[in-house]
Design a protein that fits this description.
heterodimer; A: 188 residues; alpha/beta; three-stranded antiparallel β-sheet; 5 helices; globular; B: 189 residues; Rossmann fold; 9 strands
């Protein structure tokens, strides 16, 4: 299949992903209770696949909501400030919020989204990310649930894309260098 | 896994269990992969447009079984009057990928009156895609008010209130891994 031809290696197999998501679901079940159910906030697009599997492992009551953001461009990149294209449908005042992310690298966007949500006076804001790339961090962010720590490689699959491609691979793979080198050469 | 605390009070019966859903999604993915065989990434590629919030579970399972390369996009809609489903649909967030000359596959969790799918089909048709098809997990033909064409269908179901696999009742029960029929006392209360 053409999709797999661009994968240098599989970093996290489908089985390992699914096993870890079962564990994460259990950890989250223990953190919250049915009487005060959390709202899971999914930051699109990357986290949708993780959200679909994670929430099916959760036995406590919860709701889901979505946000989509877009960068204002290079000048605001360092602050992490993004434009909110789709805001939450739900009012989160007094609610427990769990932000669900596919990956945290620089931490800029997550930091901004967290600060943005905190202005709405939620009961709590926690973060669950499937992947964490601490070597790329430029802004400190607190993460409560982490699936896997990954090295500083170009990871794709399971929601994560390169230029909108490879999101649907059922595993986390590393993209072949020649693939992104070629695209970067074209766009620079 | 145990969802007892969520379901014992609310679910009348399981209409479609996890195995039945997984088997059907696999077959749909195979059909779609065959129909779009040879399509590659690019300006004339395939875009799956998932309709929020309900379609995200179905889309997640369907996409990862597709053999054909594709892009994924989302669209968010709301109706002007939730209680009547009169067909007046409001676009909350548009899709981001320009679909002109691309193959578009709309992915929906459920079609009942048909107004939402009808709106989406008219909206995307006007953008000159290379082709436009729809993939719908559940259809409730008894509720149809406008005719819509569904190219790939998961299941036809009777006119009962269903939850799970993306479908909710007041945002509850959405992420149950099966399709259940809601007890009447829940939606009448």
């Amino acid at each position: 299949m053409g999709l797999h031809g661009d994968v240098d290696k599989i970093l996290i197999s489908e089985d390992r992903l699914q096993q870890r998501i079962v564990e994460l679901g259990r950890e989250i079940n223990e953190m919250y209770c049915d009487d005060d159910p959390p709202l899971l906030v999914c930051v699109l697009k990357g986290a949708f696949m993780f959200l679909a599997d994670l929430t099916r492992q959760m036995t406590i009551r919860h709701e889901v909501d979505f946000m989509e953001t877009s960068s204002y461009g290079a000048r605001t990149k360092s602050s992490g400030v993004v434009r909110i294209l789709l805001d939450l449908e739900r009012n989160i005042e007094g609610r427990h919020v769990l932000i669900v992310e596919d990956i945290v690298d620089s931490g800029r966007t997550l930091s901004y989204v967290t600060r943005n949500l905190e202005t709405r006076n939620p009961a709590s804001v926690r973060v669950c990310t499937l992947l964490n790339k601490p070597s790329r961090r430029v802004i400190d962010v607190a993460i409560d649930f982490v699936g896997f720590e990954v090295p500083d490689e170009f990871v794709i699959g399971y929601g994560l894309d390169f230029d909108e491609e490879y999101r649907n691979l059922p595993f986390i793979g590393v993209l072949k260098e020649e693939v992104y080198a070629e695209v970067e050469a074209k766009t620079s | 896994m145990n969802h007892e605390n969520q379901i014992s009070d609310a679910i009348e019966r399981v209409l479609l269990d996890e195995d039945a859903i997984a088997a059907r999604v696999s077959r749909l993915a195979a059909e779609i992969s065959e129909a779009y065989a040879g399509v590659e990434y690019g300006q004339d590629g395939l875009v799956l447009v998932g309709v929020l919030k309900g379609a995200f579970v179905f889309l997640a399972d369907l996409a990862r079984q597709l053999a054909v390369p594709h892009h994924v996009d989302f669209i968010a809609l709301s109706s002007y009057n939730r209680s009547t489903s009169s067909g007046e649909v409001r676009l909350i967030m548009d899709s981001r990928i320009n679909v002109a000359d691309r193959h578009v596959l709309i992915v929906e969790d459920i079609v009942d009156t048909g107004h939402t799918l009808d709106y989406l089909q008219r909206t995307f048709q006007a953008r000159n895609p290379a082709s436009l098809r729809s993939c719908v997990f559940l259809s409730k033909p008894a509720r149809r008010e406008v005719p819509v064409s569904i190219d790939y269908l998961g299941f036809e179901i009777p006119d009962v209130w269903v939850v799970g696999y993306g479908l909710d009742f007041a945002d509850r029960y959405r992420t149950l891994p099966f399709i259940g029929a809601l007890k009447e006392k829940i939606y009448k209360s």
